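re the bet — no i am not wrong, look at it urself. input seq straight from the record:
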Amino acid sequence: MPNIFEPQNAPTELSRACFDFSHVAGELEESRKRLSAVFDTVQVGIVIIDAETHTIVDANPKALEMIGDGKEAVVGSVCHCFICPEQSGHCPITDHGQRIDNAERQLLRPGGDSITIVKTVARVKLYGRDHLIESFLDISDRKRAEEELRHSEERYRDILENANDLIQSVDAKGNFIYVNNAWKRTLGYSDQDLASMNIFDVIKPCCQSHCATMFDQLKSGARIPRVEVEFLAKDGRSIILEGSINCNTSDGQISTRGVFRDITERKQMEAELTQSEDRYRKLFENAPEAILVQSGGRYLCANKQACQLLGVERPEEVVGQSIFSFVHPDYHAMVLERIQRIQDTGEPSPLREQKIVRKDGAVIDVEAVSTGIVFQGQDAIQVIIRDITERKQVEEQRRELNSRLEKMVEEKTRHLKEAQAKLIQSEKMATLGEVIAGAAHELNNPLAGILGAIQMLRSSALAHPIDPELMEGIDVLESIESAAVRCQKIVEDLVRFTTQARCNFSDMDINEVLRDTLEIMSGPFEEQKVKVKLQLDPEVPRIEGDFVKLLEVYVNLLQNAKSALPNGGRIDISTGLVKKYGEPLQVSVVIRDNGCGIPLQNLAKIFDPFFTTKPAGKGPGLGLTVCYGIVKRHGGDIDVRSTVGKGTEVTVTVPVRQHKGATNQAS
């Protein structure tokens, strides 16, 4: 179809008229050419549509480009195939009488897709017919940009609204332009509150002067990389914020943007950490116990007590030293095991005793407990050490005292048992003494009568001539007399045991008594090959005693010792002075043999009258009984200890001085 702006065949009358107005035709031609040039070159799509038929009668190159088809396919087609999606009879211009002026529409393309355009429709008369001139501009790029901008703004807003940091924008007067949800959530203010508030309403008074100065610096172009400020929450809480602020100028208006992070909890933790570190430092320095921190086998620090414990003047003498510098070699393995256990399990090492070596070489006892800590950013072990040297000494002294006390208790218990046994023995002997005294008195009279009768019978027999029968009778009388004399001797020994016997006390030397005793027993000892060792203490004082009776005691005891050594052996005799608290001085005589010993069941009976382990006819068994009585009348004691197969030890103790009452009574 020819360009609508090209000249058409006009009637003859018009030609004649134009001929009359040639200058007007020339201007029209120039105008036509200008319009044609604009139509062809303008970067806006233009189509001319027959308003009656809705047929596209012309389209400029830009319109064809936007439609995406050639002029042959476009011109002559119904407009709703490309320009308007409405069907026939529903044209918004011709059918509905609407006006389209810079309205956003969709331009249809042959491929079925569309592009967004801004369209303007105008009605014109061309060649006597109504036409629609539709111009449209491709805004798809702008729409895409707007869509991307919208998405970007949504993402930006989403970031702002969902950020954990507090974000705010404030104008030059301090009025709030924008705050995000985190800001409102943290400080507790609503949008209604912020509408009537100024930034200085939320800044804590102590920070307002600093913030005002900072705002002035921002306005003058200064850059402030880091800000720390305290805001007041709606409920009165103080919120510590850390962040950055920058200045923004838009349309001549100055505003500030701030991004903050709530560090209130961190500040509290830092304050608590500082307080904790300060407490730890003071505790470390002033602790009554020695504290050492070590890592990698070397000491990192030491407190005052540790320096005092190790014998150094300054901590610098310890820091950097090997942990084994002060550990006793016997405990190196234990220390390594303790460190390995802490590193493996993380659990503290229990309290353990060990020894350390001070700087001066002294070895002291300590007890230590270790635990894993973090020191100056590295894993370390803290050791708390306590000097227990004095305690160990006290414990050792206590053990010694307990041992001595136990021995004393055992000794006292033994003494009590011995005293009890002696008391029983004494009571028994006293009772026996009374019985024996009465029995001796009753026996002496019959024995005297028997002996008298024997004398009379012997005299009468001797008066007659001697014959064998008479001699036999005299022999019988002599046997009877011998038995009676023997009984009389036994009665005499029993009488000597009783209290009726008397001791003649005089000043005497106990060592001399023992020497005389050995002279008496020297012959029997030589015959039986018994060796005697005499250890007499020359410092032993003279005593008040009966020389003869004590001599009898020691002779009797040595005879018993000799009897325990049938195949020879050894007897040790010693004297000594006995001093006991609260008791008078005593002299002791100890006779010890290495013979057969006395069985335990016989030990309690040895002082009983007539008790003997000798065969019948070898003695009446009154020797120790008499000895017991003599020693008791001297105010002393006799103690016998014996172990079968090892020997017997007899200890005789007598006081140096006799009580006056006892001496007079004995006299």
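see?? The CA atoms of residues 186 and 298 lie 48 Å apart. told u. also Residues 10-19, 616-621, 663-667 have pLDDT under 50 and may be disordered. so pay up
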